[in-house]
Design brief:
The complex is a heterotrimer of chains A (281), B (361) and C (285). With 281 residues, chain A is of the alpha/beta class. Chain A folds into two domains: 1-88 and 173-272, Rossmann fold; 97-172, no CATH class. In chain A, 34% of the residues lie in helices and 21% in strands. In chain A, strands 6-7-8-3-9-10 form a six-stranded mixed sheet, sandwiched between helices. Chain A has a four-stranded antiparallel sheet with strand order 2-1-4-5, with helices on one face. In chain A, strand 1 and strand 2 (24-34) form a beta hairpin. Chain A is globular. Chain A starts with 11 loop residues before the first strand and ends in an 11-residue tail after the last helix. With 361 residues, chain B is an all-alpha fold. Chain B is 73% helix and 3% strand. Chain B is globular and about 65 Å long. Chain C has a domain at 12-120 and 128-214. In chain C, the strands form two sheets. Chain C has a two-stranded antiparallel ribbon. The longest helix of chain C is centred in the first third of the chain and has 31 residues, at 2-32. The radius of gyration of chain C is 18 Å and the shape is globular. In chain C, 52% of the residues are buried. The chains are: A alpha/beta (281), B mainly alpha (361), C mainly alpha (285). The interface between A and B is large, with 49 and 33 residues. The structure holds adenosine-5'-diphosphate and magnesium ion. The site of adenosine-5'-diphosphate has 11 residues of chain A, from strand 2 and helix 1.
Chain lengths: 281, 361, 285
């Protein structure tokens, strides 16, 4: 799919990105680069750090105060949200957001059609076989075959989350932005969704905002830590876990602890070995 | 549609939804058939007066359909559709009476005026949503209502602007014009029919689905790549076009135009017709318009204050049947074709089902 | 010049009365999230009730006391009967109040009659005011309106109920968590909204005509004031009502009153599109 596009040009690059709300600087001179390398990139940071705002800037829902956003080398700063979406950036919202009165299938159909064929006012919506094939494929990818005909408004919380990911995937994006996808889920739903995210990250470039540290340190290949609108640290999970600045500023753990971050997952808790997160443990 | 449905093996091949769809198709066909043959059958059962009423019902249905496209499908409640109705109506009247246009050019001019108005006001109005959209549409329609009142040399103000009906076609000495009441009826039938056909095609197209998506969740719609502003504007202009066609037809029908049709109460009536009939369905507004106009025509003969009943119907509909008459009919039919304890029903009434299941998951 | 002056004063006084009515509209919008298309008719019902009471008792001041109370009661009943059941369908509230408007107008037409009537002012006579003989009652009406406006804002900021109303408007969920009876506040708000429109009705009855269509005329004006003042900004609404009525009064001296109305509406559209928070945003309510 997309992870194998030209590796020299980063999928996403922001240059000196700044967003102010009145006196509050929600995004503070962020220089962020995401190479197209099929790695799962997570953004963590305390509440109010500016993570969602960062996504809003990338997806065009907010206009930056200054700075630039490049997508595959194209300057998309100031583009409208729908245009950015059609270029290949999809996202989910922190508060789940789907088309309630439409069936699961039609939810995904809308997103697929937006990218593939557009809104021909005088042709029947049934006569777009390519869109339909795409819909069937996505439904299978996110595993919603059984409930494809159900109205989205009647789904369980976990299914809505999967559907939202399906909608985001339907347009065959090159970059998928997930904003706290497992927030508020039961452990079972969490596990299913996390597995899905890991699968997806092999197909699409994914940036994942997540609060659940166990999950982040478990699945992420790279981590960016944000605090007060800026980037505090960046690196592999092990690097982040041992980064003193991160501990002090964000995690607030005492240095005289035994050196192990309390947020580090225990193998018993998660039920599967995590990759590299324990290198300093 | 019989109660034997659940037991018959041949019947059980169809889900209740499919049966409902069939029922709706039959109902729509019956409706179309009725309008197509009204001038032939109505004189058999009642007097010719009702042919005119039926023609009126068709025109006002189109007007209600314009509200429905915006509210039922795009999620924008316009309380100012009378402006575009008025534009179509005055376009025709001014075209004929002041500019001296013939029948078809005047018709075209009326439609052009309404589309133009919708484009200009809509490009501003669709920047707003919800209550603000409702308010600004009323405000725009009021501005033009007052303007039309002041420019009475052109519009005739409250008295209106009457005109002589120009001929539709002229072959040598023979003129064909709407003064022939049967011709007038079928002219209205065909024009309204074409508009409904257009609406049906639009709604079955990707465009129509995109409108529904916007109605359901405009943020998500924008995020999947729909240009929400342009789609809303397109919907607004098409809706203005429908209102304008209705107004133009009404001008020909009454041979006059009047500012009183531009007041916000007329817009409100269209909203009421659409909602009482059932917003978000193709023929719901026809049903609502039909029922309420028949009530008006019948009841007003015996009871001066029949509007009290209309007010009560509006409130009862909003409280007990927010999906309107169509919704009532559909749920009744569903109850009949899928009685309780039928496994089909349970799959279908998933809402209650899911409420119970959700916490367990 | 005298005429301009008289029209300007007329506008000002009318604006004070409108402020009362528009405040009712604004609190209903702010708290219940309802566009009340029947609000003009609440005012009209006030004028008609005043007419009936004066007709049977010959005592205007009794009407002045009774009408707002009847308004409160009617408001509470209507909120329970019509507004509570549609809580779930916010978009339809505008339709329900349209139906309500029809019912109120038709009820009045059936009982009071279709013909407009006049109510004599309780205080007659004129006083000389800057060179013109000005109708005394109009000044009385202005004073009454000012007192009522002051009482309203005092109530809102000092009384416990008023504080609760502001809390509910600000954040209904937190208010509920704090033990404020939110549902009852909704009813009370709607009742007060009706009560204020009815109060405006009594005060205005002697200087306008009592007519079942009076609400249709006054409703757009109230909306203009609410929007220009800023939805939910009550001081702004009151100020906008007075300023606009004054402006329309002055324009009326030179041009068709309809032109004045068009100007207000254009101003209102601009505010809606450019500054939907109203022109006084920043001031608190
Ligand atoms: N639209 C907005 N207007 C004003 N302030 C905002 C807006 N969006 C976010 N903020 C503020 O910016 C800061 C960062 O918010 P956000 O990006 O949502 O944080 P996070 O997602 O990291 O928890 C917060 O202080 C928040 O209050
Ligand atoms: Mg966030």
């Amino acid at each position: 799919m997309s992870a194998n596009t030209n590796n020299n040009v980063p999928v996403l690059e922001t240059q000196h990105l700044v967003k102010r709300f009145g006196g509050l600087t929600a995004t503070n001179d962020v220089n962020f680069t995401l190479a197209s390398n099929g790695r799962l990139h997570a953004i963590i940071g305390p509440n109010g750090a500016g993570k969602t705002t960062f996504f809003n800037l990338i997806s065009g829902r907010l206009k930056p105060t200054s700075g630039k956003i490049l997508f595959k080398g194209e300057d998309i700063t100031g583009y409208s949200t729908h245009r950015i979406a059609r270029l290949g950036i999809s996202r989910t919202l922190q508060i789940k957001s789907v088309f309630d009165a439409l069936s699961v299938e039609d939810n995904i159909w809308i997103a697929a059609q937006a990218k593939m064929a557009g809104w021909h006012p005088l042709r029947s919506a049934r006569h777009f076989p390519d869109t339909q094939r795409r819909v069937d494929k996505v439904i299978e990818e996110v595993g919603l075959q059984e409930i494809a005909k159900r109205e989205a408004g009647t789904l369980s919380y976990g299914d809505v989350a999967l559907l939202e990911m399906g909608i985001a995937l339907a347009s065959d994006p090159e970059l998928l932005l997930l904003d706290e996808p497992i927030c508020g889920m039961s452990p079972k739903e969490t596990q299913r969704t996390v597995e899905k995210i890991v699968e997806l990250s092999k197909l699409v470039n994914v940036i994942l905002i997540e609060h659940d540290m166990e999950v982040v340190f478990d699945v992420a290949d790279d981590i960016t830590v944000m605090a007060q609108g800026g980037i505090l640290a960046q690196g592999s999970p092990s690097e982040i876990a041992s980064n003193h600045e991160v501990r002090e500023a964000y995690l607030g753990f005492d240095e005289d602890d035994d050196g192990e971050l309390a947020i580090m997952p225990n193998e018993q808790d998660i039920g599967q070995p995590s990759k590299g997160a324990h290198s300093n443990g | 549609m019989s109660n034997a449905a659940p037991t018959g093996p041949a019947r059980s091949l169809r889900t209740p939804e499919q049966k409902l769809a069939i029922f709706n198709r039959v109902l729509s066909a019956a409706l179309i058939l009725f309008f197509a043959s009204a001038p032939l059958i109505l004189p058999l059962v009642t007097n010719n007066f009702w042919i005119g009423i039926t023609a009126e019902i068709m025109m006002w249905s189109l007007f209600a359909a314009s509200v429905n496209l915006l509210f039922g499908y795009t999620g924008l409640l316009s309380f100012g559709q009378a402006l575009y109705f008025g534009a179509g109506m005055y376009g025709v009247a001014i075209g004929v009476a002041q500019i001296g246009l013939g029948f078809w050019p005047a018709f075209g001019f009326g439609i052009f005026c309404s589309i133009f108005m919708a484009l200009v006001t809509g490009s501003l109005a669709v920047r707003l949503t919800w209550h603000y959209f409702a308010i600004i549409t009323v405000v725009f329609s009021l501005i033009f209502y007052f303007l039309a009142l002041t420019m009475s040399s052109i519009t005739g103000g409250d008295d209106g602007l009457a005109f002589q009906l120009p001929p539709m076609f002229q072959f040598g000495d023979t003129e064909i014009s709407l003064t022939n009441s049967t011709l007038q009826y079928y002219f209205i039938f065909i024009v309204v029919g074409l508009c409904f056909f257009l609406k049906w095609r639009l709604l079955a197209s990707p465009f129509g689905r995109a409108l529904v998506a916007i109605r359901e969740n405009d943020v998500r719609a924008e995020l999947v790549g729909i240009n929400v502003y342009m789609m809303r504007l397109a919907s607004f202009v098409i809706s203005g076009f429908f209102a304008g066609v209705a107004g133009a037809l009404f001008a020909f029908f009454g041979r006059y135009a009047s500012t009183s049709y531009m007041f916000y109460h007329v817009s409100g009536e269209a909203v009421v017709w659409a909602i009482v009939g059932g917003a978000g369905t193709l023929f719901g507004p026809v049903l609502g318009t039909g029922v309420l106009i028949i009530i008006r025509e019948e009841l007003s003969l015996y009871w001066d204050h029949y509007l009290l009943l209309v007010g009560v119907i509006i409130i009862l509909t909003v409280i007990f049947a927010p999906k309107g008459l169509t919704g009532l009919i559909n749920s009744t039919v569903l109850k009949i074709v899928a009685p309780k304890h039928n496994p089909d029903t349970e799959a279908q009434s998933n809402l209650a089902d899911d409420k119970a299941r959700q916490p367990a998951e | 010049m005298d005429l301009v002056f008289a029209l300007a004063i007329n506008g000002l006084i009318w604006g004070l009365i409108i402020a009362l009515i528009a405040l009712g509209l604004s609190i209903i919008f702010g708290l219940l999230d309802i566009i009340n298309l029947a609000h003009g008719d609440f005012f009209m019902v006030g004028t008609v009730l005043a007419w009936f009471i004066v007709q049977s008792t010959d005592n205007f001041w009794l009407a002045f006391i009774l009408v707002p109370i009847i308004g409160l009661l009617l408001g509470a009943v209507i909120q329970k009967l019509v507004i509570v059941p549609i809580k779930g369908a916010a978009a339809l509230s505008i339709v329900a109040t349209f139906g309500l408007s029809i019912i109120l107008q038709e009820t009045v037409r059936a009982t009071f009659g279709p013909a407009p009537k006049r109510l004599l002012p309780p205080v007659e006579g004129t006083i000389p005011l800057f060179g013109i003989d000005y109708e005394l009652y109009r000044l009385v009406a202005a004073v009454i309106s000012i007192i009522c406006l002051a009482a309203f804002f005092l109530f809102l900021h000092k009384a416990k109920l008023g504080t609760w109303m502001r809390a509910v408007r600000h954040d209904p969920e937190t208010a509920l968590a704090l033990g404020i009876p939110v549902q009852r506040i909704y009813t009370i708000t709607f009742a007060i909204g009706f009560g204020m429109a009815a109060l405006g009705g009594v005060v205005a009855a002697p200087i306008t005509t009592v007519d079942f269509r009076a609400g249709v005329d006054i409703l757009p004006f109230c909306f203009i004031a609410v929007i220009i003042g800023g939805l939910g900004n009550l001081q702004g609404t009151a100020a906008a009502a007075v300023l606009l009525a004054f402006m329309e009064g002055v324009i009326t001296a030179f041009a068709d009153p309809v032109v004045a109305r068009i100007a207000s509406l254009l101003f209102m559209s601009a505010v809606l599109l450019v500054r939907p928070q109203g022109i006084f945003a920043g001031a608190t309510s």
